[in-house]
Every structure is written in structure tokens, then in C-alpha cells.
Amino acid sequence: MAGIERAVALEVGPMVGVELRPTRAFVRLGRGRRLVRVVPLSARPRPLRRPRRAWGVAFGPVRLTGVGSPVLTVGLAGVHAVRRALAS
């Protein structure tokens, strides 16, 4: 998938979901997974230029999905979070 941002999403049953992208994090709660909070980590999204494969794994009621490398996604989000914290 090209033109979208890399992401890692963790869903626990039908009630809780967290999606982490390098530039922001989304927290969702409830049956309809209504958006509860968006936490910006950087100024703007940076879409992927080269296509990356979507992937997913399920462990009972827990589902982990994403686009691109989860290690790189979490690492980039951590770098943006630290930079934001130091700038405050």
C-alpha cells in the first residue's frame, strides 16, 4: 500500500483499540470504536512512497494489524514523542 502512513493497530475484543502511527496515536473505546483521543506526535503525516504490505495476526480476542514494519513504526513514533516532549 503506497500513499498511506505506516501503522500498527492493537484491538482487544470489540471494546478497545489503539492505533499507533509515526506522527500520531488514536485511542478508541466502545462497540462502535468511537474515537476517544488523538495524540499528535509530529507536525504532519508522512505517507509511504513505496508500497508496503498490510499484515495482521490474531490471538483469541486480541488482534494486531498494520502496514509496514511494526518495529520501524514504533521506533519512529518514539522518536517523534521524545522530540515533542523535549520541545515542550
Number of beta strands: 6
Radius of gyration in whole Å, from Cα?
13 Å
Average pLDDT for all residues: 88
* Strand order, largest beta sheet: 4-3-2-1-6-5
Q: Based on helices, strands and strand pairing, what is the structural class? A: alpha+beta
Terminal Cα separation, in Å? 34 Å
What is the overall number of helices?
Answer: 1
Largest sheet: 6 strands, antiparallel
The percentage helix is: 10-25%
The low-confidence runs, each spanning 5 or more residues with pLDDT under 50, are: none
Question: Order of helices and strands, N to C?
Answer: EEEEEEH
How much of the sequence lies in strands comes to 35-45%
Q: In the residues, how many domains can be counted?
A: 1
* Apparent shape: globular
Describe the protein in words:
This protein is α+β, with helices and mostly antiparallel strands and 88 residues long. It has one domain (7-87). Helix content is 20%, strand content 41%. It is globular and about 40 Å long. The N and C termini lie far apart (34 Å).
